[in-house]
Amino acid sequence: MGQRYRLNMQVDEERKTLIARVVGPMPSRVVTEEFMAAYRRVGQPWLYNRIIDYRKFTGTIDHEDTQDFMRQWNDLVDGAPYSSKVAFVTDDALELARATTYDHMTPDHVRSFTTIDQALEWFQA
To answer: Residue 75: which CATH number?
Structure first.
C-alpha cells in the first residue's frame, strides 16, 4: 500500500508561479520537509509567486513546524531580495478563518483564497 499523502509541485515558468498541492493526512513535520525539498529542487523559489493549495489536505499544521519552516525558508533565501506573493487556497471554513487573520499583517505579500483562480487574479493585479 502506497503513501496516503503527498505534495505535488507544479512549476509555471511562463507566469513565474509555483503551485503546490498538499493531499491527504500528511504529518505536520513532513509538510515542512516536503516543501523544503521541493523548493530546493526549484532552485530560487523566492523568485516565484507561490500558491499553496490545502483543499485536499486532511492533516493539521503545528505551530512549531510553521516556525521551523520559516527558519528553513530564511536560511534558503539567505537575505536575497524578493517581492513574490504567497496565496493559500482552502475551502475549509476554520482554516480560512485562521489564515485570514494573518492576511492583514502582510496584505501585499500573503493572502488566502478559496480558489486557485482567485489567487492567480491577485498575482496579476
So the answer is: 3.30.750.24
Three-state helix/strand/coil letters over the chain: CCCCCEEEEEEECCCCEEEEEEEECCCHHHHHHHHHHHHHHHCCHHHCEEEEEEEEECCCCCHHHHHHHHHHHHHHHCCCCCCCCEEEECCCHHHHHHHHHHHCCCCCCEEEECCHHHHHHHHHC
Read off φ and ψ for residue 26, nearest 5 degrees: -65, 130
Any domain includes 10: yes
Reported as a single tens digit per residue, the pLDDT across 52-62 is: 999 999 998 89
Task: Establish if 1 belongs to a structural domain.
Answer: no
Summarised one tens digit per residue, pLDDT across range 2-44 is: 669 999 999 999 999 999 999 999 999 999 999 999 999 999 9
Q: Is residue 117 part of a domain?
A: yes
The pLDDT of 73-95, averaged and rounded, is 91
